[in-house]
Amino acid sequence: MATALQILFSGLTVGAIYALVAIGFTLVYSSSEVVNFAQGEFVMLGGMISATAVAAGLAPLPAASLAIVATVVTGILLYGLAVAPARDASPIVVIIITIGASIFIRGLASVGMGKEFHTLPPLLATPTLDLGGASVQTQGLVVMAGSVAIVLTLWLFLRMTKLGRGIRATAANRLAAQLAGINPRVIVGLTFAISALIGALGGILITPITLTSFDVGTLLAVKGFAAAVLGGLTHPAGPVLGGLMIGLLEAVGAGYISSQYKDVFAFVVLLGVLFLRPQGILGGRAVERV
Amino acid sequence: MRRILANPYAPAFALAVVVVMVPLLVPSPFYLRLATLVFINALVVVGLNLLMGYAGQISLGHAAFFAMGAYASAIGPAHLGLPTLASMLAGIVLTGVVAYGVGKPILRFKGYHLAVATLGLGVIVSIVITNEIAWTGGPDGMQVARLWIGSWRVSGVANWYWVAGITLIVAMLGAANLLSSPTGRALRAIHDSEVAAGVLGIDVARYKLLVFVISAIYAATAGAFLALFDGHVTPVTGGILRSIEFVAMAVLGGLGSILGSVLGAAVLVVLPQALTSFHEFEHAILGAILMVLMIALRRGVIPSLQSWLLRGAA
Amino acid sequence: MSAISVEHVSIRFGGLVALSDVSFDVPPGEIFALIGPNGAGKTTLFNVVSGVYACTDGRIRFNGKTITGALPHELARKGLTRTFQNLQIFFRMSAAENVMVGRHLHERRNPLLDFLGLPMVHRQNAESRKLAEELLDLVGLSGLGDQPAGELPYGVLKRLEIARALATRPSVIMLDEPVAGCNAVETAEIAHVIRKIAGSGMTVMLVEHDMGFVMTLADRIHVLNRGMTLAEGTPSEIRNNPAVIEAYLGTAKPGETSRAHG
Prior knowledge:
Chain C: Residues 4-251 form the ABC transporter domain. Chain C: InterPro entries: AAA+_ATPase, ABC_AA/LPS_Transport, ABC_transporter-like_ATP-bd, BCA_ABC_TP_C, P-loop_NTPase. Chain C: Pfam families: ABC_tran (PF00005), BCA_ABC_TP_C (PF12399). The structure holds 3 protein chains of 3 kinds. Helix content of chain A is 73%, strand content 3%. Chain A is mainly alpha-helical. By secondary structure, chain B is mostly helical. Chain B has one domain. In chain B, helix 4 crosses helix 11 (204-230) and helix 12 crosses helix 13 (258-274). Chain C has a domain at 89-169.
């Protein structure tokens, strides 16, 4: 029972981060059909910049703020300098551009902040907590609470604000949104900024638990992308569900099978789900028109 | 001009000239080694281009097949007492069989689903290689026995340069033959419209599987060559970054261009070597160059150059 | 025996009933037209008969044999092929190569021989190319063989699809809006081609909005409305059927029927 609880807890913690990465993927994809493989680098930047700044003597809050601002600026530059100039290129070409960008960002991060592991102090003073016999890290609770807050804020933003409605309108029908006076370049740039913001927050939240280094972005991008596709690339709740599922599957695999083979377990189940629901768990069924 | 560009055998011919010229122009082992690595990578990318550029099916997991060829050549002599040549050939055939078995279910996926499925394949193979230490030596990798063909000991750059170069020429000729045949037309038809290919009698699933297996065999052959050439193989051979690198080579050179595949491989093999003088900035510069090239030549280097040349000639 | 029998065919997408209990028979060699307002289910029916969609209920027979649920390439092998309303051209190929793909079933296709590029593969290519040129001549596209299909105008592509379908040597050819977007001259040419192929014994099923074209060409017409059969008969019977005029043309005067895009 305690083991099961521990597995559930660690699965939800990691899954929350995958979900945040997956939200970044879907947000950008649904408004622009761009799959941004540099998404994982946002998480890396959030964690690395905060940790480096704290190590340099900055207080945690200003350090985190600095990391967030820097990551958001990176996201906007990524769109403005690399993705927007290639907007009429084929999807695979844009993917390669974002992969080039992630190599570039990773390369700069390793030069500027070193290749060693970095960490951040946890938010709460008590590092662990006894929960039904299972000892859990309080930072895990912070990750989950933070992720829920991020998702709710995003949801409110998309529902309640003019810009948020612009994003939803563009996702639903780009041409119609454009005719209604919404500038798609502003909207897509905004989704890059938001996904960078979400990624950076995720990176800051998770670093006290998993540590971070310049090269954590690749694996996060892979998992986040898989989570986004698993959830259904265009459904708003898809990435959350997909991310949590992959996190839980990994935790179950690590707990009951072997920690080396947890990813194998997660991917095999993921492929099984895609066979049963090719449109993703929440994606709508598309009838091919000929 | 148009005639030369349109000739399907021109790329293989151009490469044959290069293969002969390089040892005459730059006879240093360093450059021959680099050229050999270009040929080996190009072999994977030519196959991947048949799959992606012609048949229109993405794979983010081809390093898995590359690694299978490499590790089969290493494991046969080390653990099973097989001759290296037999292990290599068995490994290539076995990889083809695995590609058939895996391709059958996952090629039903399209687009991003296929991307995730092939990515999953790559992740799984790389984890198995890293963790089955008794067989593969784990993260440290394993030694590979030398290749003997009869009494010829194939070793060193002087031998492997020619083996890899000539194999690549043959692979390019084969690809060109395939493309101007009923099989090639079926593959290209599937890329543009699966439903139209179907109503014209093309068994779409069968042809997708066929090209998937062919591309896996190209990758496995290249993987075996790399392992035998290096004399050592590590899990990095089959990592997901490797798979993504192969795709980047194909896209950079130009999807649907055989010559582009070779050029894309050349750029991404040579560039990191050329950038080592920038030391720590190597990766940042590599990423920046990849971005700039793709933004400027968004259809890939060769197709973009071709249309520019044709416009000039017209 | 009918070339095509559609027996009580229904298809639903989720809750939407796209076709409901549709039945008809097409005798060999007939030119059989399906008409109806937009959304009537004509293209859906084509998709069901050609194996692109699987129907929810009912049965389809081809020369007496049940083919319900067969895949498009299996049907093509039996001798049934089609064209598409929204073009499905192989845009990265030349016009001649498009038609050569249609020869697929009649070519020797062994991947290993193809890989080796043996002389017989090249000989066969030359043969297929020659037959492709002949079919391009037939549909009035002489001399366009080497043109990249992506650069050809719409009306030409419509005819290219017909040539490509004919290359499979079908016994039944289904044409989905063969003259949509074509000018009067092109329309007349296509009508001529269809008469010619029907005259050679091929069965032609077509969907078309151009009423003048349908009325002069079809032997029999089947009218669909909202997924259901409304009427069936000869062109003159259909022209004078009050239900058809009511549903199909709404309030339009009979004089406006010739190019109704309802």
